[in-house]
C-alpha cells in the first residue's frame, strides 16, 4: 500500500495569533510538494508541525495511517522516519563530510542496522550527492554548494519516508541556486522520497515541484501543478504572487470583459470564476504587447515609466491612468522611457 501524508483541519495558534487556519492536504508517496508563500504565511510552521518540532492546536497529521500529531498527543521526532534540510545547513565544524553523513545512522532507530549496510548507505548517499572525493574535508574547507550537498546526503542516508526542506537554497548565490535545484531534482528521482519543500521563491517552486501549495495568512490559497498555478490562478493573490499577473479592472457581462476607462473588451478564455465575481481580469506580463501609441488602435494607453534589461527580455512598467502594468517583451524591442504606448492583449485582433 502506498504511503501518504495526510494533514486534516490543522490549526496552530500562538496566543491570539492564528498561524495556521484549518489546513487540509494529502501528499502522495514519492511526490515533490512545494509550499510557497511570503514571510509570515505559516509555511514554516506547517513544516515544523510535520517534523514534530511543534504541536498543533487542533487537527491531525498522519503518515500511512499512523498518527504523528492530533492536538492531544504527538509522536516523538525520533520515531518519525523523516529527514530534514535546514536553511543554515547545520553542520558541525569538527566533523568531516563522512562523519556528518554517518551521524543519522547512529540513532536508536538505526541501532539494529548492520555495520556493512550502514557503510553501503553512506557510500550511496555520498555518491548520489557527488561527495566521495570530499569525504574527509571539514565544513570550513567546503563551498556553500558543497555544504548544502552534505546536508542533503545526511538527510537522505537513512532513507526517510519524507524529506522536509526549509528554504535550503536561500543563502546561496543565484547561479549556485540553479545548479542545486537540478541536484535536488536528481536526488528526488533517484530516491523516490516524498519531499515537502518550503520556499518564498516562485521560480524554485515552479521549477522543481510536482504540485505547489500557495499559502497566505495561515490558509491555503491554491493547490495545483506548476502549470495550473501559473496558467490558471484561482485568487488575486495567487495571480499576483506567482504569475506576476496584471489585474485589470472592469465589468463582466456574460463571457465578455469590458475594461474600465477604455473602449476595449476581452474574451473570457480560462479566467476563473473568482475573477468574474470580482469584475477583474488577470493578464500575465507576457500576455500584453506594447505598440507605439496610435489613437486608432483599441487598447490601453499609457507611458513607459520604468525599463529593466534582463538578457533575453526587457521588463517595462507602463503607467496607464491610475494603474501601472508590467509587460515583458523580447530584448530586441527597445522602447524609451517616457514614450507613449498602447497595450493590447496578445492574440487579439487589432481593429
Automatic annotation (TrEMBL):
GO MF annotation terms: ABC-type transporter activity; ATP binding; ATP hydrolysis activity
Matches recorded under PROSITE patterns: ABC_TRANSPORTER_1, ABC_TRANSPORTER_2
Keywords assigned by UniProt, alphabetized: ATP-binding, Hydrolase, Nucleotide-binding, Transport
Cellular component GO terms, alphabetical: ATP-binding cassette (ABC) transporter complex
InterPro entries from the UniProt entry: AAA+_ATPase, ABC_SmlMolc_Importer, ABC_transporter-like_ATP-bd, ABC_transporter-like_CS, Mo/tungstate-bd_C_term_dom, P-loop_NTPase
Enzyme Commission numbers on file: 3.6.3.31
Limits of the ABC transporter domain: 5-242
Protein known as: Spermidine/putrescine import ATP-binding protein PotA
Amino acid at each position: 500500500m502506498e504511503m501518504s501524508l495526510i494533514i486534516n483541519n490543522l490549526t496552530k495558534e500562538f496566543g491570539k495569533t492564528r498561524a495556521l487556519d484549518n489546513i487540509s492536504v494529502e501528499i502522495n508517496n514519492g511526490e515533490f510538494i512545494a509550499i510557497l508563500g511570503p514571510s509570515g504565511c505559516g509555511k514554516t510552521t506547517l513544516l515544523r508541525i510535520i517534523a514534530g518540532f511543534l504541536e498543533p492546536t487542533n487537527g491531525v497529521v498522519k503518515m500511512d495511517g499512523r498518527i504523528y500529531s492530533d492536538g492531544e498527543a504527538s509522536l516523538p521526532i525520533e520515531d518519525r522516519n523523516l529527514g530534514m534540510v535546514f536553511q543554515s545547513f547545520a553542520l558541525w565544524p569538527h566533523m568531516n563530510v563522512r562523519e556528518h553523513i554517518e551521524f543519522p545512522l547512529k540513532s536508536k532507530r538505526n541501532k539494529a542496522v548492520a555495520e556493512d549496510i550502514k557503510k553501503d548507505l553512506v557510500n550511496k548517499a555520498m555518491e548520489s550527492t557527488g561527495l566521495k572525493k570530499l569525504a574527509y574535508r571539514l565544513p570550513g574547507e567546503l563551498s556553500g554548494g558543497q555544504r548544502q550537498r552534505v546536508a542533503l546526503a545526511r538527510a537522505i542516508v537513512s532513507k526517510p519516508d519524507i524529506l522536509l526542506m526549509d528554504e535550503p537554497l536561500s543563502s546561496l548565490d543565484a547561479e549556485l541556486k540553479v545548479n542545486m535545484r537540478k541536484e535536488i531534482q536528481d536526488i528526488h528521482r533517484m530516491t523516490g522520497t516524498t519531499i515537502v519543500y518550503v520556499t518564498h521563491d516562485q521560480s524554485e517552486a515552479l521549477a522543481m515541484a510536482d504540485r505547489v501549495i500557495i499559502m497566505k495568512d495561515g490558509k491555503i490559497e491554491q493547490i495545483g501543478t506548476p502549470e495550473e498555478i501559473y496558467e490558471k490562478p484561482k485568487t488575486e493573490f495567487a495571480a499576483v504572487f506567482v504569475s506576476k499577473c496584471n489585474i485589470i479592472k472592469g465589468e463582466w457581462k456574460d463571457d465578455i470583459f469590458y475594461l474600465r476607462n477604455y473602449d476595449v473588451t476581452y474574451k473570457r478564455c480560462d479566467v476563473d470564476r473568482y475573477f468574474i465575481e470580482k469584475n477583474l481580469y488577470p493578464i500575465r506580463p507576457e500576455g500584453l504587447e506594447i505598440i507605439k501609441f496610435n489613437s486608432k488602435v483599441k487598447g490601453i494607453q499609457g507611458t513607459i515609466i520604468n525599463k529593466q534589461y534582463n538578457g533575453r527580455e526587457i521588463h517595462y512598467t507602463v503607467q496607464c491612468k491610475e494603474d501601472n502594468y508590467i509587460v515583458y517583451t523580447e530584448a530586441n524591442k527597445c522602447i524609451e522611457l517616457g514614450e507613449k504606448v498602447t497595450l493590447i492583449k496578445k492574440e487579439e485582433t487589432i481593429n
